[in-house]
Design goal:
The protein is an all-alpha fold. The chain has two domains: about 50 residues, Arc Repressor Mutant, subunit A (Orthogonal Bundle), CATH 1.10.10; about 150 residues, Tetracycline Repressor, domain 2 (Orthogonal Bundle), CATH 1.10.357.
Length: about 210
C-alpha cells in the first residue's frame, strides 16, 4: 500500500510532468487524480488546491537553485569562472528537475503575480545581476551592453538549452556549460584551433 508521503510525492511528480507538458491552466485536478489513480476528492487530503501543488514544485526547484548558486559564490572565483559555474549549476538543476524547469521557463504569465514565486525568482536574478555588475566594474565584461539585457539572454540560453539527455551523447553538462559560456563571453567568431583549445583548458583550470 502506498504510504501518505509516497502518495504526496507521486502527486507532485505527476502534476509537474503534466504542467510542463500541457500548461498549468490546461491541467485539471481531476486529470492529476486520474493519472495518480485516486479520486479527485482524495487529492484534497494532500493539497488544498492546484496552486498549492504548483507552489510545492517550484519552491523545491527554487531552493535547489538557491543552494547551488550559494555554493558557487562561496568559492570566490573570478567573474568569468563564476559565470561558467552558475551556468553549470543551472544545467544540473535542469537535468534533475526537467519538468519544474519547463514550468519555470514557460509558465511566467501564470506565475508572475504569485509572491511565493516572485521572491525566489528575484533572488536568483539578483545573483546573476550582481555578478554581471561586478564583472563590468572590474573591466572583465563589456560595459556597452546593459546588464539586464545580458542576463535575459544568458538566462534563456541556459534554461531553454536543456531538453533532456542529448540523444547522441554529444554534450556532457560540463561541455554544454563551456559552450554556452564561451559563446557569451567570446562570441562565435572562428579562432585558431590552438587558441580554442587553450581557452577551454584555461577555463577548466580556474
Amino acid at each position: 500500500m502506498t504510504e501518505p508521503q509516497d502518495r504526496r510525492e507521486l502527486i507532485v511528480a505527476t502534476a509537474a510532468e503534466m504542467f510542463a507538458r500541457k500548461g498549468i491552466r490546461a491541467t485539471t485536478v481531476r486529470e492529476i487524480a486520474d493519472a495518480v489513480g485516486v479520486l479527485s476528492g482524495s487529492l484534497y487530503h494532500y493539497f488544498r488546491s492546484k496552486d498549492e501543488i504548483v507552489q510545492e514544485i517550484l519552491s523545491e526547484f527554487l531552493e535547489e537553485v538557491r543552494a547551488r548558486y550559494a555554493e558557487v559564490l562561496g568559492r570566490g572565483d573570478d567573474c568569468a569562472q563564476t559565470l561558467r559555474e552558475l551556468v553549470l549549476a543551472s544545467l544540473r538543476v535542469a537535468s534533475q528537475r526537467p519538468s519544474a524547469t519547463a514550468i519555470y521557463q514557460n509558465q511566467l504569465r501564470y506565475l508572475r503575480d504569485r509572491p511565493e514565486f516572485k521572491e525566489g525568482a528575484a533572488e536568483a536574478q539578483r545573483v546573476w545581476l550582481e555578478l554581471i555588475d561586478r564583472g563590468v566594474a572590474e573591466g572583465v565584461f563589456r560595459a556597452d551592453i546593459p546588464p539586464r539585457v545580458f542576463y535575459r539572454l544568458i538566462r534563456d540560453a541556459v534554461w531553454m538549452s536543456w531538453r533532456g539527455p542529448q540523444p547522441d551523447g554529444m554534450y556532457s553538462l560540463e561541455e554544454l556549460a563551456d559552450a554556452i559560456t564561451s559563446i557569451f563571453l567570446e562570441g562565435f567568431i572562428a579562432r585558431p584551433e590552438s587558441a580554442v583549445g587553450t581557452s577551454t583548458a584555461a577555463a577548466r583550470r580556474r
